[in-house]
Amino acid sequence: MTRRRLVIGIMALTLTVPAFIVGSGVLAGTHSQMDCEDDDFQVGTGLLTAWPNTDFCNFRYPSSSGFASGGVARDGIPPLYPEGYVYPEDIPRRGGEEARNTVSYESVDSANGWLVDDHPVIAVEINGDVRAFPLGILTRHEIANTEIGGVPVAVTFCPLCNTGVVFDRRLNDETLVFGVSGFLRFSDLIMWDHQTESWWQQSTGEGLVGTYADEQLIFIPSAMTSYGQFKMQFPDGQVLSSQGDSADYNPYIGYDSTDDPFLYNGFIDERLEATARVLGYRHYDDNGEEIFTAYPFETLEETIVANDIVGGEPRVAFWQPGARSALDSGNINEARAVGAANLFDPTLEDGTILTFVADGTTITDEQTSSTWNIFGVATDGELAGTQLTQVISITHFWFAWQAFHTTVIWEPGTTTDQLLAASE
């Protein structure tokens, strides 16, 4: 871990943003000098007061790499905690009443009373335990600290980047609890943990600042899909409760059509529109080198399936209609349809590698003509009941994916490996 000069300043807010985002940040206009083991750095006195337990001597990236205040204090957007969780006494509590900060669930039958079928949700299955997290609820909280299938996880959603990411909260010998720092990096949510008050990048799971600045959180497979698709596949699943909040309200009206993302101060690759939706995938080849692929929703909507080869490994992306945008209309129930995508390894247990075709929006494999759904489950035909292995892929806005990854954009009729070879 290197110890370098870290300077974080105030950025002027010039965009029209949701009311609960606009406000005074924790950064002060004056600066205070602090001594580090190997080097000095300057931070605002307000930052030092608000984050007295954060080790600002340790950081992964310089402040020039996209850090900004989002305009709210720590937990000004209140995260959700497990029932009975006791907030640390040495950390000032913010973010609302205790009862409104507690994770609770209800059955599909109960959720049918307030959640419409095309509402977007993050679906997670661990050890047979299946949960759905409506984006209309996560938009207000951004982080749900919970347990699924006996595994402590953080289900996170950054509305500014449209990234829904699930992490294992276990790191070394600790189980971390995460909050919303009020800061952004390349417009993406920066989380913080209660154990060390380190800062974390939501999109990548990287430790950014503090004791855990060189650590990496483990991703948990998830799917951003529609509630209707979720309950059809998992009628006995559990749904994050609204706790009386309206699930259809979107404070980010029209945000997924902007060409000027909020507080984004990085490069935007013009191969796609800034807020075009993509399914992002990171793969490690045999040499340990990272390969990044973006599957544009606009292309997937036309092809429905994307048979691909990445680092020599077969992959297939499925797209299906049915999910609305959570970041379009002020009422999610009236928002435009954007669909859902998911990525799988098409290799069966016996080694057979399936290839897929689409007839309209119906997905079948060419080997047995079995029918498949967005969760990679064969619903009809010879392979009915077969489950493809889901690989970790995450829906992003294009600007947010390309901000962190040098990426290939998948094209019909070719593969990631072929596109990489052609670029050399």
Verbal overview:
It is built from seven helices and 30 strands. By secondary structure, it is mainly β. Among the domains are: about 100-240; about 270-424, Rieske Iron-sulfur Protein, CATH 2.102.10. The strands form eight sheets. It has a five-stranded antiparallel β-sheet, with no helix packed on it. A five-stranded mixed β-sheet has the order 4-18-6-5-17. A hairpin with a 2-residue loop joins strand 10 and strand 11. About 45% of the residues are buried.
Helix- and strand-based class? mainly beta
Question: Mind describing the biggest β-sheet?
Answer: 5 strands, antiparallel
Q: Tell me which CATH architecture of the domain at 270-423 applies here.
A: 3-layer Sandwich
**Approximate shape:** globular
Helix content: 10-25%
What's the N-to-C terminus distance? Answer: 33 Å
CATH topology of the domain at 270-423: Rieske Iron-sulfur Protein
How confident overall, as mean pLDDT?
88
Short summary:
This protein has seven helices and 30 strands.
